[in-house]
Design a protein that fits this description.
elongated, 28% helix, alpha+beta
Length: 500
C-alpha cells in the first residue's frame, strides 16, 4: 500500500494542481519537527533531544515525551529499506523502554546546555509543566512508549510490516508520511498517518505496559487547586471560588492552560494546598473566560467579578497589564458539595498537584466522593455520625476504636460524640483526643510532638496548620493494634513510656 497526497489550488471554478516536490524533505523534516513538534500530532510533544546516542551505539533521530508521560522514539526513514527502518525503530523501542526518569533528565540537561535554552527550563519538570500545564507524573513515567517512522514516501513493504506488528502483536508502532508542495514562493506540508492514531489509544494491552498499567482518565474528573491554606481568607481563591461558583487560575500560562480544555458536564475536585485538602466537588457549567467577563450576582445585579469588592487587587493588576499570558481566567461551577477549610478532606496518599490537571487517581476520587457523601464508596462515610459509622465498619476497625476508647477512659477522659467524630475531654471539658472513624481505620488527633511519634515508627503528621476534626497538632493513623500503642504512649496509660 502506498500513501500519497495530492493538492489543488482553486482558481475561480477551476482546480489547478500544486506540484509535489520531494526535494530534501526528509533531511529538513527533522529540523521542522524539532522546531514545532505539533507537526506530528495528535499527541502534543516536548522534544527531549535529537540525535540521541543509545546504549548500543546507534543515534535516535528524535526522543520526545507526551502529556501522558509516554516516551516517543521518532525515526526518519531516509533511504533505509523496509526491513531496516522497522528493525531500527524496534531496536530504539527496546532502548527507550529501559530509560529511567533520571536518564531522561540527563539527556534533557545536556540538550539545554548545548542549545542555550532558558535556565528556567533546565529542569525537565519545569519544562514539562510549561509545555503541558500539568506536573510530570513520576508514577506513570514511561509506563508506555510509542514508535513513529517519518517518511516522505512509503514503499509497499513498510506498511505491511507495521500493520502486522501493531494489529497482531500490539506493538506501539506507526508511520506518518509528509508530502511537500511548492506553489510559487510558498511551500506546504501535508501529513498522512498509516494507521489512525486513535487506534493506538483504544488498544490497552498488558504487553504495552511494561512497567505497570498506565492510569486511565475517566474523561470526566479534573483537579483544580484553589490556593493554599495559609492564604489570606479575604482574598483567597477558595473564598471567592466557593462563594461565587468558580475555579480559576492566572499569573502565567502554565497555571491556566489546562482550563481551556474543560467542558460543561465535567466534574471538578477543588483542592487547597499547604496543609488544606479537598474542600468541594462540583460540575463545570461552561468554558473558561477572562475573569473580567465572568458575571456574578452582586447587589441584586449581574456584574463582572472584577467589579465586586471580593476581587483581589492582584487579579485586577494582572488584567490591567494587558498580557493574556499573565491574566486571570475563570470557569463556572455548580458546587455539589462543599466544606469549610477547617473540615477539608485529606489523608496521606491522596492525589495533589500544583496545577490544574486530569484527575486519574481512582482512590482519591472514591475517597473524596465518599467523604462528601456523594457515593457509597468504600473510603469514607460522608455525613454519618460516629455511632452510624461504628455500625458499618469491619470488626477489626471496631476493635481498634474500642481499644483506643478504653485507653482514653483509663486516662480519666469522657466521651463526647460530635457531628462526624468523637472527642474525649478532660474534667474541664477541654478536648484531649479526637477520633475520626473511617472504613480503613482511625485518625486520632492529639496535642503531642509529631517528630517523636514518627521516630518511634508510628504514622503521624503535623496538622497544626490543617483543618481537621477534633483537637491537637498531630494526626496519628491507626490501622493495627501496634498503632494503638501510640495512644498509650501519648496518654501515659498503663505504664506507657514517652516517645519524645
Amino acid at each position: 500500500m502506498s500513501l500519497q497526497t495530492s493538492m489543488w489550488r482553486v482558481e475561480g471554478a477551476k482546480p489547478v494542481p500544486v506540484l509535489s516536490s520531494p526535494m530534501d524533505l526528509e533531511e529538513r523534516l527533522e529540523d521542522l519537527i524539532v522546531a514545532d513538534p505539533d507537526l506530528l500530532g495528535p499527541d502534543q510533544l516536548l522534544v527531549i533531544d535529537r540525535q540521541v546516542l543509545t546504549s548500543h551505539g546507534k543515534y535516535l533521530d528524535i526522543l520526545a515525551i507526551d502529556e501522558e508521560a509516554r516516551l516517543h522514539a521518532i525515526e526518519l526513514k531516509r533511504a533505509k529499506t523496509p526491513r531496516d527502518v522497522v528493525a531500527q525503530a524496534l531496536d530504539y523501542g527496546w532502548w527507550i523502554r529501559t530509560l529511567t526518569l533520571e536518564q531522561v533528565e540527563d539527556i534533557w540537561r545536556r540538550r539545554t546546555v548545548d542549545d542555550g535554552i532558558d535556565t528556567d527550563d533546565i529542569d525537565l519538570g519545569n519544562a514539562y509543566e510549561s509545555r503541558f500545564a500539568t506536573a510530570l507524573d513520576v508514577e506513570t513515567f514511561n509506563a508506555e512508549h510509542k514508535l513513529t517512522i517519518i517518511a516522505a514516501t512509503l514503499d509497499t513493504g513498510t506498511p505491511r510490516i507495521i500493520e502486522y506488528l501493531a494489529d497482531d502483536y500490539d506493538v506501539p508502532i506507526n508511520a506518518v508520511v509528509f508530502s511537500h508542495f511548492v506553489d510559487g514562493e510558498r511551500e506546504y506540508l501535508s501529513r498522512t498517518w498509516l494507521r489512525p492514531p486513535a487506534e493506538d489509544e483504544v488498544k490497552v494491552s498488558p504487553k504495552r505496559a511494561h512497567k505497570g498499567q498506565k492510569k486511565a482518565w475517566n474523561g470526566r474528573d479534573v483537579f483544580v487547586p484553589l490556593g493554599r491554606a495559609d492564604d489570606d481568607p479575604t482574598w483567597a481563591r477558595w473564598t471567592h471560588g466557593l462563594k461565587y461558583g468558580l475555579v480559576g487560575a492566572g499569573g502565567g500560562a502554565p497555571y491556566w492552560k489546562f482550563l481551556r480544555n474543560v467542558e460543561a458536564g465535567m466534574r471538578v475536585f477543588a483542592y487547597v494546598g499547604k496543609g488544606g485538602g479537598y474542600i468541594a466537588v462540583g460540575e463545570i457549567t461552561g468554558p473558561m473566560v477572562p475573569l473580567d467577563e465572568f458575571l456574578v450576582e452582586h447587589g441584586g445585579q449581574q456584574v463582572p467579578f472584577t467589579e465586586t469588592p471580593d476581587c483581589p487587587p492582584e487579579f485586577r493588576e494582572r488584567l490591567a497589564a494587558g498580557d493574556p499570558d499573565i491574566a486571570e481566567y475563570a470557569v463556572p461551577v455548580t458546587w455539589q458539595a462543599t466544606r469549610p477549610l477547617d473540615e477539608a478532606v485529606w489523608e496521606t496518599g491522596l492525589f495533589a498537584n500544583q496545577l490544574p490537571c486530569r484527575l486519574k487517581d481512582t482512590r482519591t476520587i472514591e475517597y473524596v466522593e465518599a467523604e462528601f457523601g456523594l457515593t457509597s464508596g468504600s473510603a469514607g462515610f460522608g455525613d454519618l455520625t460516629p455511632a452510624e459509622r461504628l455500625e458499618q465498619v469491619a470488626p477489626e476497625v471496631r476493635a481498634l476504636f474500642d481499644q483506643t476508647a478504653s485507653l482514653c477512659e483509663q486516662a480519666g477522659l469522657a466521651r463526647t460524640d460530635l457531628k462526624w467524630w468523637v472527642n474525649y475531654v478532660d474534667s474541664s471539658g477541654t478536648p484531649v483526643v479526637g477520633i475520626v472513624i473511617r472504613k480503613g481505620g482511625l485518625r486520632v488527633y492529639v496535642d503531642y510532638p509529631t517528630d517523636g511519634l514518627v521516630e518511634a515508627g508510628y504514622t503521624a503528621r503535623d496538622v497544626s496548620d490543617v483543618g481537621h476534626h477534633g483537637s491537637g497538632n498531630t494526626e496519628i493513623t491507626v490501622q493495627t493494634a501496634h498503632d494503638v500503642t501510640a495512644i498509650r504512649h501519648v496518654l501515659d496509660v498503663d505504664g506507657g513510656t514517652s516517645v519524645t
